Amino acid sequence: MDIQLLADRPTAEERAAVDEVLGPPVSSWDGARQRRPVDEHVAFGGSAARAGRHLLLPALHALQDAIGAVSRGGLNYICERLTIPPAEAYGVAAFYHLLTVDAPGTPVAYVCDDIACRGAGVADLLGELDAGREDGTRIETSPCLGQCHAGSAAYVHRPGVPAHRVGVAPASAPGVLGALRGNAPAQAGAIPVPQPVTDRRVLRRVGAVDPASLDSYREHGGYAALAWAVERGPEEIVAEVEASRLMGRGGAAFPAGVKWRAVAGQPGPRYVICNADESEPGTFKDRVLLEYDPFAVIEAMTIAGLAVGAATGYLYIRGEYPLAEERLRAALDQARHAGLLGPVSMSGMFDFDIEIRRGGGAYICGEETALFNSIEGYRGEPRQKPPFPTEAGLFSRPTLVNNVETLVNVLDIVSEGGAAYAATGTESSTGTKLFCLSRDIATPGVYEFPFGITLGDVLEAAGGVTGELAAVLVGGAAGSFIGPDRLDTPLTFEGARAAGISLGSGVVMPFAVGTDFADITRRIAAFFEEETCGQCVPCRVGVVRQGEALGRLTTGRSRTDEVALIDDIARAMRDASICGLGHTASGAIQSAIALDLIGVS
Amino acid sequence: MWGSNAREAHPIFFHHLLKGVHNGARLYAVDPRRTASAAWADVWLGIDVGADIAVANAVGREIIAHDLHNAEFIARATTGFEAYAAAMQPYTLDYAEQISGVPAEVIGGLARDYATAGTAQLCWTLGITEHRSATDNVLALINLALLTGHVGRWGSGLVPIRGQNNVQGGGDMGALPDKLPGFQSVEDDELRGKFEAQWGAPVPPDKGWHLSLMFEAMDRGDLRALYIIGENPAQAEADAAHARERLAGLDFMVVQDIFLTRTAQMADVVFPAAAAWAETEGTVTNSERRVQRVRKALDPPGEARDDIAIVSALAKRMGHDWGYPTAEELWDELRSLSPMHAGMSYRRLEALRGLQWPCRDEEDPGSPFLHGRLWAEDPAERGRPAPFTPVEWIPPADELTTEYPLRLTTGRRLDSYNTGVQSGGYSSPRRHGESLDLDPEDAAALGVEDGDRVRVISRRGSVEAPVRLVRGLRPGLAFMTPHFPDDVDVNSLTIDVWDPKSGTAEFKATAVRVEKVG
Amino acid sequence: MTIELRIDGVPIEVEDGATVLDALQLAGLDTPTLCYGPNLTPVNACRVCMVEVEGSRTLVPACSRPAEPDMVVSTNTDRVRHSRRLVLEFLASSVDLSVAPGVGAWLDEYGAEPSRFGADRATVGQPVKVQDDLYIRDYAKCILCYKCVEACGVDAQNTFAISVAGRGFEATISTEFDVALPDSACVYCGNCIGVCPTGALMFKTEFDMRENGTWDEDRQTVTETICSFCGVGCSLELFVQDNRIVKVLSPLDHDVTDGHLCIKGRFGWEHIQ
Fold first, then answer.
1. How does the average pLDDT of chain A come out, rounded?
2. Helix (H, G, I), strand (E, B) or coil at C174
3. Residues contacting residue A138 through CB under 8 Å, at least 6 positions apart
């Protein structure tokens, strides 16, 4: 491909960082500094040279990790290595908030100022950090970092080889400033799983198992499900998942068995993806599973691979989850070493391995088709459906995408049988559900309940609301507020549907009377303005117009027509946007207006 | 793609080619330079200039050696296979590597991929034909198509891409030394008679001279007057200084052009002409034999007239009043004389946006590809079998020696065209004027850096130009274009040794040395 | 093979592989489109061609949705009209659509009132980029339809000199690191101009004439002829005003060019001016 590079050359450091991901270049046509005699007469290019495009994001991360930025020389080098036109690579790099494009690299702290952590504390923290930070470091605000139970959080990235990437939660000024200097974070707080182990199923190993030890995982029953699965074969696994009536836990609540059956029935090659790009504000349940039970996720993905006949799985993990990524990488190594990945050698042999892909700071990449584009090395923009991922997903091949929580449920389904699994919960919502409780609640954390429990009981189980309840945000920024008069709403898929809400990712965030809902809803509006990919007009412009109308509404500049205008905008976004982000970007705001929560501030 | 940088010289053709690439086609590029086209290839074979026949023959030998030739097609539709196979014996992969510099296994890979592809095309341009072995180069490629049956089928074929918008049409219309319009032989009494009857005048029965023979005839004094229409040989000919000398020696020269070109400046009479493509009506024929309408969008400037008007006026002064026929009237006469154009009325050309010949009557949809007859079951329909024509490799005429150690090859750049008469008019942000493109290693050896001025010296002349360091070359290989002859007269370097069959000079292979200026 | 579907209650037969938009066109319905181009892969980004399809939760982009047997399509429902109206309002309130062909009529047809979003609404207003003599980029007129990116990319030119960069409302069409065009990979084929639906990309000739008030489409003729710069035979549409060429396009449905040209065909006509 006749790509044209800029004149900027990579530094030795940049080359080394990229080569670490891609391996050293061979031909001078692909970036090797020395021309071999054979290069004078032969070059291999074409589709094979372009096939490494999916390594673009990992290579960009490698640059960002090493020098704190995507430099011109570094980007050039990646483009030369992977045969990617620089404008395209730039378009991809500039899409992700965790990549610093064409600016000096610095240590940076991303401080959550999203709805759960929002309040007087964040402003103070930001003030202290700004005053205390050293020259050549940056403090940025961030959307929800998935540490909501802690009440404050930061993600710190200090470039180097290796980069120092840590989460700090709760986030104190000394803790964050220390992390910026390269200090290890203070002792992590308690695991945010307050329920006794006897009340937990999906979460039962959390806190009990050593996440760094395959042996420990096995001692806790790990890999029994895979053994069973290998023995019974793909058809029976799929049948059990169907029988379980498991519904996807990522937010869309699609029947998992239907997906598994559909993918298994398509011609290969097929792919399995674990969507661990948990980014819905108020959600941290997948992080808890990934950090404290990583082998379970790997085992479940392996079963999925076996069931649908995929040889490669991708685990797409949120870029702001360094601890989870580190533990997963270590777990993958152990599993490979033990013959549980790569060529899997149990009673029957099959090939399955998992590649980790780190997100770049983009909520939209949790949308499955955007996630495909992100893995493939394109901008994380959603695709129009149909075609559906089960037919044409990653690399346009049949692809099974499941959320972390969904996959971990499969272990019990396989072990116990689908019918037994379905005995828990309700007819249409089987099994248990993880709920993320934060904000104005006595004991924040991840809770697990059989489907059927009411909203009020969930709040009660978490120690009750601190203060007088004004409203509960269910489902996150993409969800909706419901009032204290509806605490009897059963938190099942069918119950939520009947109540006109969505469980989404399981966020249950109560707000006490006195909350500045004008500020909270403006933050939600701003979240969508920052996170819309910008691909389709209704969403790209709609979220901005929504934010403007809400701004006028909540600052007292105008109250006439703004509500009607927001309704008009919302309707167009819901009807005409490409993906769920646009469809849901107004739900919380409209529900807050309907509950008359929003005053002028 | 063999000897073609279509990415720059034929960009829209390359769009079509890339559609194939995106659909999974494998692309090989055989070219001394790793051009923008070659950069798209799965495999680039960077042959040394002039090694084409050695490589093509080795590909043929390899195909036969691995029994990958299409024996059934060969038996049914060709002649001379045995002799071809025998003649290819010396062309081992190793021998081809020795001549071309391309590793034997890479040439072998091309052979196997070409032979086993479901459909495959060989596309070429001047990299094949601007050699003293031009015709043999083409024959070597034709042999490969016959060997594999990659001809006469949809998706397979031999694709010479034409360099000018009507070079095909010029040939179709009889602008060849031995042909009347429609490729009808001037030496065939019956065919010639048809034209004589239509025109009411005798047509000389002997074939004429092609360009290179004309220039030799000037030397001998056999050619003393010349009427040149839309050509700039004073700058476009190889060994241009010599060409200008010959033109200057003519008794009388008329030039008809849209500009006062270097050639026109030497003329006794200049006819200012309208730009055919935007100021006149008519047709042109593209590379795929598609006859298309050109139309008048602008009035020509000043006293410029369209070519029909000029020729008609000239005829009238010579005592033949042809009136002032329209382009369509002339075209209809052509259709009545050239069977392969018979079905192409202006009405159809306009409605269908062109038709590909042969198109024999007004029901004929035209011919997207040729030679399909070779696949016919019926021997009568199949007709004359296609002959293998074994050819031998010869090195370029302009030898590399210690005095002239660098191989200079020439070609086009994207934003310019030939001697720049037309393309010089607009301001391209990518144009940097003429340069000597060099490999950085050669530049280092000469002690020159990007932008330094050098003198390029061949056995025939010398020019000065700035150096440009580029990727895509290698030590010993340099590149220039003919686009800026007023600044850098590159064709004063090139050699006018020409192919005896086509008359084309060996523009692609000049031996030069380079000296730093100042 | 043909497929029968119903459009606003009327049965329409289309070829297998046709889109809903093809069917709408066959039914004689004027459907607004901006990001759609017959010579480009649909990106369905502008969402102005949305229709209602029975059984579909959301509206459906007509330009990219394949027609299916027995599909029931509605184009004139309140939902469809609302959606089209809002999308047009979103665009007209944020982008300068003053020279975008067709858009004015659609704004009227759908009763769009872009001003209702307030006087201090965000827009993409920014200075025009004039970096060479061939064409200008006025991104204040850019609706981010991706057509230029597609034409520069895999749908035609395969040069990939531009991409969408950034995200959301801040997203722009950009070269790598926003370097000036002459420093970028741009090969000046102008195929981006050929597909731009809003005049954000414009021949410098047209831009200058508009600036000095001499651009007059009523005085222009369009003549189809063949490019003289190589043997491919690309069809050119010469736009001529006062016996001067003012811009050059190629017919979108021409099977030699698919509407695309190279720098010489697009811009190489100064020599006859």
1. 95
2. strand
3. A106, A107, A108, A109
Chain C's closest residue to A380, CA to CA, is C167
Confidence of residue B518 (pLDDT cuts 50, 70, 90): confident
CATH 3.10.20.740 domain span(s) along chain C? 1-123
Q: Does the domain spanning C1-123 belong to CATH 3.30.379.10?
A: no
Tokens 């013959």 found at: A339
Q: Is the pLDDT of residue B143 over 90?
A: yes
What are the tens digits of pLDDT across the range A542-597? 999 999 999 999 887 776 789 999 999 999 999 999 999 999 999 999 999 999 99
Residue B47 has what DSSP assignment?
A: P
Chain B, 45 to 104: residues with Cβ < 8 Å from chain A are: 45-47, 100-103
- Nearest to B332, CA basis, from B322, B321, B345: B345
Quick check: A105 pLDDT over 80?
yes
B335 CA: distance to closest CA in chain C (Å): 21
Tens-place pLDDT, residues B292-304:
999 999 999 999 9
Helix segments in chain C, DSSP class H:
20-26, 78-94, 103-109, 147-152, 191-195, 204-211, 263-267
State how far the Cα of A350 lies from the Cα of A394, in Å rounded to an integer.
Answer: 21
- Taking CB atoms and an 8 Å limit, are A543 and C168 in contact across chains? yes
pLDDT band at A522 (very low <50, low <70, confident <90, very high): very high
| Check: complex ipTM more than 0.85 | yes
> Is C230 within 8 Å of B9 (Cβ atoms)?
yes
Domain boundary among A422, A440, A455: A422
Query: What is the nearest CA distance from C220 to chain B, expressed in angstroms?
Result: 11
Q: Which domains does chain B have, with CATH numbers?
A: 6-161 (3.40.228.10), 406-516 (2.40.40.20)
Give the pLDDT score at A188: 62
At A87 the three-state DSSP class reads helix
Q: Is the pLDDT of residue A466 over 70?
A: yes
Residue-range definition of the domain harbouring residue A19? 12-93
Q: Which chains touch B (3 or more CB pairs under 8 A)?
A: A, C
Same domain for A387 and A500, yes or no, is: no
**Which chain A residues are closer than 8 Å to C32 by Cβ?**
none
The whole-number pLDDT of residue A601 equals 65
Q: Is A578 on the interface with C (CB under 8 A)?
A: yes
Question: What residue in A sits closest to B477 (Cα-Cα)?
Answer: A40
Instruction: Kindly report the average pLDDT of chain B as a whole number.
Output: 96
Residues 94-133 of A with CB under 8 A from C: 94-95, 97, 101-102
Could you tell me if A251 and A290 lie in one domain? yes
